[in-house]
Specification:
The protein has a seven-stranded mixed beta barrel. The protein has a five-stranded antiparallel β-sheet with strand order 2-3-8-5-6. Strands 7-4-1-9 form a four-stranded antiparallel β-sheet, with no helix packed on it. The chain starts with a strand and ends with a strand. Strand 5 (69-78) and strand 6 form a beta hairpin. By secondary structure, it is α+β, with helices and mostly antiparallel strands. The chain contains three helices and 20 strands.
Length: 309
């Protein structure tokens, strides 16, 4: 099936769950900024959880489907598009995203997944290198993107329990583990609210608020960083690295965000805020295991409700 992009929105790209095994070559993990939302959107239409979907940022697209399909939209909420449940689109039907109501990024999955070439083990778009996804770039008005033909049968009437969703908020409390240089900044990271600036993107969320002054001195040797690493540049305004972050960094590393709270950051728009709270590595592991357990229960429950036709 060939899906037509009538209106592309601000920044709509094809994303999956990222690339693995290429950090030494300077290729970041990439993939969905909010992997939880992408995984659930795929589950809701019977796809493997890492299937390519559309990542929609701030302003949504208008998409036309020439054949009937099941779609799901998870993550940010928009007018005119039901979230966190399967949506039936009939032949010639369109999905139109209205005004953004909450969050920053939504994920639109289609039964069968979008049919894009795998590059370096992943199908997501890496904008900095113009690889992956749809021609290595954001979608544009008039683009035609293929999806894999795969009809589904959905049984019964049901909804997801919202208690399983991340604690999305415009002012979340995000848990972090102390970084290599945490002692050089004391408790400054936990001293107040940080605002999300307009310079934020898929590489990193740039914050302003309490300035983080380093007590130590001297240059640092660049070392490995990853999504969730919080770096502090010389101006004292922290940067939280996100999905497309570089693989090496030379700024001090004050903390690292626990994996289950990455979706909270992915849904922050310019003008939103965040506060940080410290936790332990063992607690981060416990949270990650509980998160995967919840997704496993959802996967099991949907297996009886979303089946191949």
């Amino acid at each position: 099936m060939e899906v037509t992009v009538i209106r592309a929105g601000m920044l709509t790209t094809v994303q999956d769950l990222g690339r693995r095994g290429h950090l030494a070559e300077g290729v970041p993990f990439g993939g969905a900024a909010d992997p939880f939302a992408l995984r659930v959107a795929n589950m809701l239409v019977g796809n493997p959880e890492d299937s390519p979907a559309l990542e929609i940022t701030l302003t949504g697209p208008e998409i036309e489907f020439p054949e009937p399909a099941w779609v799901a939209v998870c993550g940010a909420r928009f007018e005119d598009v039901p979230a966190w449940r399967p949506i039936r689109v009939e032949r010639g039907g369109r999905i139109r995203f209205g005004k953004r109501l909450q969050g920053c990024r939504a994920y639109l999955s289609v039964s069968g997944g979008f049919d894009v070439e795998k590059v370096l083990g992943g199908r997501g778009t890496f904008l900095a290198s113009a690889i992956g996804g749809f021609k290595g770039r954001p979608l544009r008005d008039g683009d035609v993107i293929r999806s894999v033909d795969c009809e589904r049968n959905l049984a019964g009437h049901w909804t997801l329990d919202e208690r399983m969703f991340p604690r999305y908020s415009r002012e979340p409390n995000v848990r972090v583990i102390a970084g290599t240089h945490a002692a050089e900044f004391g408790d400054l990271l936990f001293s107040g609210r940080f605002g999300v600036t307009a310079r934020s993107n898929r590489m990193g969320i740039r914050l302003d608020g309490p300035r983080l002054a380093r007590s130590g001195g001297g240059d640092l040797v660049s070392t490995a960083v990853a999504p969730g690493t919080i770096q502090v540049p010389p101006d004292g305004n922290p940067i939280v690295l996100m999905a497309d972050a570089q693989t090496l960094g030379g700024y001090p590393r004050v903390a690292h965000v626990v994996s289950v709270d990455i979706p909270l950051l992915a849904q922050l728009a310019p003008g939103d805020g965040v506060r940080f709270a410290t936790t332990t590595l063992s607690e981060a592991h416990r949270l990650a295991h509980a998160w995967e357990h919840g997704l496993a229960l959802l996967r099991q429950g949907l297996a009886e409700k979303v089946r191949p036709a």
